[in-house]
Amino acid sequence: MTPEYVYFLLFVLLLIEGIGVPGIPFEAVFLAAGYFIQTGEMSFVGAVAVGTLGNLAGNLIGYWLGAKTVPVLLRRFTRSWGMERGQNIAMSWFERYGAAVVVISRWFGLIRTPTIVGAAAMGMKPGPYTFYSAIGAFTWTLAWQYASWKGLGILARWWRCYRQHSTWWLDTLLIAGLVLVTGILIFMYCKKHLRTRKKP
User: Fold this and answer.
1) Into how many domains does the chain fold?
2) Looking at the whole model, is its pTM more than 0.70?
3) Per-residue model confidence as pLDDT tens digits over 59-68
């Protein structure tokens, strides 16, 4: 994978995510960019700029789609991904806080899609929407990219330190711990899933 390809993926994935499509694995591309920033092959400022532009472009596409077909689009999104509650919260927040919701919604997946798709229907004009979306896209991208960059650096330093002092028994203990934790999480998930299915 080259830095140029990571820039491209950063723009495209954040554009799709910016439209309001849930489940986009943007974390991986932030981490890849963080790695290349660590090696000096990518610029932190460049990565944030590309990610912000992609996300803002997606927000504007989502706004335009919502303005054209908002009733159908909102119904489809909310029913497909169980976002009825998110739609209600977004509308309630819009009434209370107005344009600031466009910035705030970047950080809450539950209301992000209803806000992007429904902003025009809730009375927000294109100009203010673009301005507040730009703030939201920039701050969100900046935070994710900075955390990925610095977090990866901390992880790399920890890993180098670990490899310097690791022994076969420490490796075995670490693997056993990971297997145990994974097993407990799977057991808890299955137990909760079975309990939910048994409810009338």
Assistant:
1) 2
2) no
3) 999 888 877 7
